[in-house]
Amino acid sequence: MVSEKRKIRQKQATMLLDISKAIAEAGTPSHRLETYMQVMLEKFNFSGQFVAFPTAIIASIGESEGGHQRTYMVKTKLGDINLGTLQRINSVINDLENNVINIDTALETIRHIKHQESEFSGWLYILAYGIVGAGFSTLFAGGWLDVLAAFCLGLVTGGIARTGDKFFHLSHVVVPFAAMVVGFLAIMIHHYTSGINYVLVALSGLIVLIPGLGITIAMRELSTDHLVSGSGRLAGAITVLFLLSFGLALGYMIGHKLFGDEAFTLSPPTPDWFRYLAIVITSLAFSVIFKARLTDVFWIFLSIALAYTGSQLFKLWLDQPFISLATAVLIATAGNIYSRITDNPASLMQIPGIILLVPGSMGFNSLTAMYTQDTITGVQAAFSAALVAVAISVGLLAGNLFVPPKKDL
Fold first, then answer.
1. CA distance 87 to 114
2. Single pTM value for the model
3. What does DSSP assign to residue 195?
4. What are the boundaries of each domain within the chain?
5. Of residues 116 and 393, which shows the higher confidence score?
6. Which of 28, 206, 332, 375 is deepest in the core (most CB within 10 A)?
């Protein structure tokens, strides 16, 4: 009897470790992961601690009634945001709590969740990169030709990113290689059309790779006293910015050597009705990039629409970074309300909304200015990006004061 109980407890501990690994590789910040796993320990009547880093998890698990604890270390990979994984894990835990499934079924399901294929095919994933590029070029006040060029360069970025997932050595140079190719193609398109803002187009084409969300998450981890994880994540995000800026500068240099130095063209922006249409289509594209479930597409659209509408309204009374602060409070509150109503993770609504606010483009422009010896502009842009990241982090934390989250995912 004692032996059977020990086996059950070991299965439960193993399940907790698998849950923490799957959640970490779905892009969950360390402070959310640690808090959620602490709740899971209490649900299974364990004592212990989880300490999460960007690439590892250290867990100490033992019986709650004075039992000895065992310490485990789980190696994790830095994963992209995967809202589908978070939703599926949440569903498994809900079923386990409601006695719909047993511990063995839950353990087997969680082990297979991270290997589960997205509901979207590979070509649709690449198409989503193009749509996001076109959508952001519209938000950046680009013209019709800019939108078309950004769509094409987004497809190029998506194709390189998908290819890098399949080849180990290429995966380490995807970021600078994609930036170089996009920068060169932007110059080439400008040369043969003489009608695009190649700086705006290149930025839009690379927008999915720009780690604005990573900078924001790092700031939030630092503000919640997760200093090691926040510092590591911030260093990683800044490194990606350097790689993007270096690759883009190299692409520009090759393009200018072949086609000559030409000033970019400013075109009249697309009309307002197209900008609103772009918000809708971009929302669908982010559902693919974040690997969300088809049933969650509406909520992602609602989140992005809420973020865009809120930022436009707050712009009438506020300036940056306070626009981002107020919008982040709105998104955090809406996400927590959604979580309380549906019993789903609040991240499903919060992450897509935040993506429109993150300061990645400002940080990218900062380093680009540095490469062109425009130091003052570069420093100003970097300071503005840091302020916006801090504002978003504070806004997300403040939103929890108005409506406390039901779940920590």
1. 12
2. 0.83
3. -
4. 2-113, 122-402
5. 393
6. 206
